[in-house]
Amino acid sequence: MQTRSFAAVLYKEGNLYVAECPEVGTVSQGYTVEEALENLREATELYLEEFPLPNTSKPLITTFEVAVHA
């Protein structure tokens, strides 16, 4: 079995942390960052068992700023 790295985007929604994997499209949640990541890992592993991804290069993930009028 090989391992592969994926990105995780986390944000807080109410009392929960939501974790998303943009490369695969899986989403999970937890009461802590660690729990949300572990749940995302499990959801992603289960998803990939059914729908394997082709070998592709890692996406470039960055941030950008926009002007927000308050």
Describe the fold and architecture.
Helix content is 26%, strand content 23%. By secondary structure, the protein is α+β, with helices and mostly antiparallel strands. The longest helix has 18 residues, at 33-50. The radius of gyration is 14 Å and the shape is flat. The termini are far apart. The relative contact order is 0.17.
Q: Might you state the CATH topology name?
A: Double Stranded RNA Binding Domain
Quick one: how many beta strands?
Answer: 3
Give the biggest sheet: 3 strands, antiparallel
Give the CATH class.
Answer: Alpha Beta
How many domains? The number is 1
Distance between the termini: 51 Å
Strand line-up in the sheet with most strands = 1-2-3
The H-and-E topology, N to C, reads as: EEEH
Share of β-strand residues:
15-25%
Report the structural category: alpha+beta
Q: What is the general shape?
A: flat
CATH hierarchy: architecture: 2-Layer Sandwich
Low-confidence stretches: none
Number of helical segments? 1
Helix content: 25-40%
Mean pLDDT: 92
Rg from alpha-carbon coordinates: 14 Å
SSE layout:
Blueprint: E1 9-13, E2 16-21, E3 26-30, H1 33-50
Antiparallel strand pairs: 1-2, 2-3
Give a short overview:
The chain is 26% helix and 23% strand. The protein has 70 residues and is of the alpha+beta class.
Considering the chains and any ligands shown, give keywords for the structure.
alpha+beta; 70 residues; three-stranded antiparallel β-sheet; Double Stranded RNA Binding Domain; flat
